[in-house]
Amino acid sequence: MYNTVNVMEAAARHGLKVVFVSTSGTVGVTRDRTKVANDASPHAVGTIRNWPYYDSKRQVEIDMYSHYVHVCVCVRVCMHAYIHAYIHTN
């Protein structure tokens, strides 16, 4: 996360824009196979909080939208189908 913040700060200092690409995993990871997430879906906090990769992406998304929207073009890659990472339990 700190490297992302460093890049955003440098972009702001130099008047540049950054394309920040995240993952559908921040909203699309679910135990419900019928749920189809999209870019407007809320973060799946309850499901991803124990998955460091997805949770760190979620934290950076929040930071980008709240502090760096002026230098950031934020994109979350969401496909209409097959965006779910199903959780299998033993």
Could you please describe the fold and organization of this structure?
With 90 residues, the protein is of the alpha+beta class. It has one domain. 41% of the residues lie in helices and 13% in strands. A two-stranded parallel sheet has the order 1-2. The chain starts with a helix and ends in a 13-residue tail after the last strand. 24% of the residues are buried.
Topology:
Blueprint: H1 2-14, E1 18-23, H2 25-28, H3 45-48, H4 52-67, E2 72-77
Parallel strand pairs: 1-2
List key phrases describing it.
90 residues, alpha+beta, two-stranded parallel sheet, 4 helices, 2 strands, disordered C terminus
Radius of gyration: 14 Å
Total of helices = 4
Give the overall shape: elongated
How many domains? The number is 1
How far apart are the termini?
A: 32 Å
Approximately how much beta-strand content do the residues carry?
Answer: 5-15%
Number of strands: 2
**Strand arrangement, major sheet:** 1-2
Q: Compute the average pLDDT.
A: 77
SSE order, as H and E?
HEHHHE
Largest sheet: 2 strands, parallel
- Structural class, by secondary structure, is alpha+beta
Low-confidence stretches: 80-90
Helicity level: 40-55%
Summarize the structure.
The chain has helices spanning 2-14, 25-28, 45-48, 52-67; strands spanning 18-23, 72-77. The longest helix has 16 residues, at 52-67.
